[in-house]
Please model this.
Amino acid sequence: MERIARMALLADFYGPLLTPKQRRIWDLHYEQDFSHVEIAESENISRQAVYDLLKRTEKILQGYEDKLGLIRRFQAEQAKLSEVARLMQEYEQKDFANDKAWERHQAISRKIEEIYQDI
Amino acid sequence: MERIARMALLADFYGPLLTPKQRRIWDLHYEQDFSHVEIAESENISRQAVYDLLKRTEKILQGYEDKLGLIRRFQAEQAKLSEVARLMQEYEQKDFANDKAWERHQAISRKIEEIYQDI
Model:
């Protein structure tokens, strides 16, 4: 997975376990795209301190995932749902006996898409 | 939710964050159904100590869920998937134009059941 997406997932799952300071600096960098220098200036700490704090925070978040594996679990679900969504979309109107059955199929297909996007 | 089921879910999600001792005593009680007295004897600690340790462990696990809400999130998924599984099962062979379309539908329906049971 792309690094930024992986960082976003880690914070989405385990961010509430960080201290307010870890969380704030993490968000400045990974959500609001502040550079290390910009964060150093706004927080009045050294650039090295920003770098160390981000590295340490990443290690903490990754440590939770290594122990709990909940991102891995969600992603496994997501892969299976994506496959189901694909199979549902292979249907065409002519596969059904009538319009009502086809419309119900499309409604279920949309529901699956919604679940898939929620995860 | 029933208390024992809730305890099992908490340990399933957040158990790896417990200390080995917390985990062991938790499993003895909630998985292997040992009484407080039996655990006190096997661990050579007081019955009160067993009680306190179990209470404290429950508080720790519930604290993770209060912060992260991942059980809530999984259960919301599960409810939606259950609804989709139900809608899929409302179909009958006569809703489809041919046997092949019906068999594909049943195969997708089974896949959804599998995902639902995995969660």
